[in-house]
Amino acid sequence: MMRRSLVALALTAFVADVYGQSATKLPNITILATGGTIAGDATSSTQLGYASGQVGVETLIKAVPALGKIAKITGEQISNVGSQDMSDAIWLKLAKRVNELAKSQDVDGVVITHGTDTMEETAYFLHLVAKTQKPIVLTGSMRPSTSLSADGPLNIYNAVAIAADPNAAGRGVLVAINDQIHSAHDLTKMNTTSVETFMSPYRGLIGSSSYGANQFYREPFKRNTTESEFGVDAVTQLPRVDILYVYEDMPADLVNASVSAGARGIVMAGVGNGNMPKAVMDALSRAAQNRVVVVRASRVPTGFVGRNVEVNDDQLGFVASEELNPPKARVLLRLALLKTKDPKQIQKFFNDY
Hints:
The chain is an alpha/beta fold. The chain has 10 helices and 14 strands. It is globular, with a radius of gyration of 22 Å. It has an 8-stranded mixed β-sheet. The chain has a 4-stranded parallel β-sheet with strand order 11-12-13-14, with helices on both faces. A two-stranded antiparallel sheet has the order 7-8. It has 2 domains: about 20-225, Rossmann fold; about 240-350, Rossmann fold, CATH 3.40.50. Helix 6 runs parallel beside helix 7 (about 280-290).
């Protein structure tokens, strides 16, 4: 009898070692809800229109009873807005709460529910300012909670499974949606209505999750989280940075209006390799001389905006966005401006992050 007991204990210890947890101790995951379609509500299960941010975090958790089998769940409501109304105030509140939770020994991972419209910006912001190796996973949905075949419950389940997975640790901020795992640095929204709205077109997926079974393909390529020099724990306001979309015969007065409105930085969603009409470039050159930081990005969905390609960035004092699209270039520039206005140092940030 004693020998059998010892064997049973040894087996239990082996299973705990393999799976990273004992059968009696589930990982502690906190879900921070911000609103979005995943918390949306409609009067019919088949109508296209709906109102975002109507359902609270407790309702979201109760809609996925299987969560209790993979993690011990707690929920907090950070905000309840459609992500088109995401704001600096919510960003700062969310980032500070993530960092507070990550310090707790009673929290093993954090899941954030969020609307898809600006999810890539929030995810990248947290990718740069969250100070933890613990998993941070954003998720959302393309269909409201009341919809026929709502995609939110499974996305939440997979997100919790990823946040509870020790293999997710140290991979920066992740986004789990449609059975895919994206790095916050890489993903972008590519479709207005499809459940397969997100892609990581330049770098590819970081992994996949199927009913909570996770596979990871790679590590993130750029600096993030605990390797990042950016932080917002003491920040109360982020500097204004505008994005201007370049088009045929674009007038230069849009640049002047942005500068007059108080922008400390301008990101150009340029044509091709970050190019723009000469009159616009001249206006940007004057802005750069007045210490407004100018970043050249591209309106093209994929590709790389290289320094001094077609445009003499060194002479004009511009910054090339490298592989960051305009929304993410804006996120990085706002954080960079908390440290410096030097375009050369900011270019180094774009190379590293």
